[in-house]
Specification:
Layout (H helix, E strand, L loop, with lengths): L5 H5 L6 H8 L5 H10 L4 H24 L8 H13 L2 H10 L4 H28 L26
Helix pairs in contact: 2-3, 3-6, 3-7, 4-5, 4-6, 4-7
């Protein structure tokens, strides 16, 4: 008899499945697929919060533009981007920024909102697996500091 319990259906769960689905979906723009690829292997919570911080920076830039704050005027958006780019952010955040830097800010905000929702869904699976009593594979990000990856930033989930 086949075991159709939630536990059996969820074992083994691939934490990157939502990102892989997004990457493989031809209806997603190339920018969204690149964002999904960049998010592969990021820690569940850190990946979500880091993407949220980049989204907040782009939203602040969008607000600056709507408010008529010009370049070289100390603006919240520029401050937040500077924070990410000049060392306070991590490599993942800088990668997200540079993937979207040439896009219109409003489009970048929409793509980051999409990514943050995807990362939240991905992180939410931890609770689902725990409640089902499913055995969990190692979490993304646990093995990032190997010899072939000195800074913990393997591109595209490799």
């Amino acid at each position: 008899m086949t075991d159709l319990s939630m536990k059996a259906l969820l074992e083994p769960y691939d934490w990157n499945l939502p990102l892989q689905d997004a990457l493989d979906d031809p209806s997603n723009s190339s920018d969204r697929r690149a964002l999904a690829a960049a998010a592969m292997r990021q820690d569940l919570d850190d990946g979500y919060y880091a993407a949220t911080e980049v989204l907040d920076a782009f939203r602040a830039l969008e607000h600056d533009i709507a408010s008529g704050v010009g370049p070289f005027n100390l603006s919240e958006g520029e401050d937040r981007v500077k924070h990410i780019l000049e060392g306070e952010g991590d490599d993942y955040q800088r990668r997200l920024y540079f993937l979207l830097a040439e896009r219109p800010v409003a489009d970048a905000v929409q793509d980051l909102e999409w990514l943050v929702a995807l990362m939240k869904e991905r992180a939410g699976m931890f609770r689902t697996l725990r409640q089902a009593g499913a055995r969990m594979a190692s979490l993304p990000g646990e093995d990032r500091a190997g010899e072939d990856d000195p800074i913990g930033c393997r591109p595209f989930g490799y």
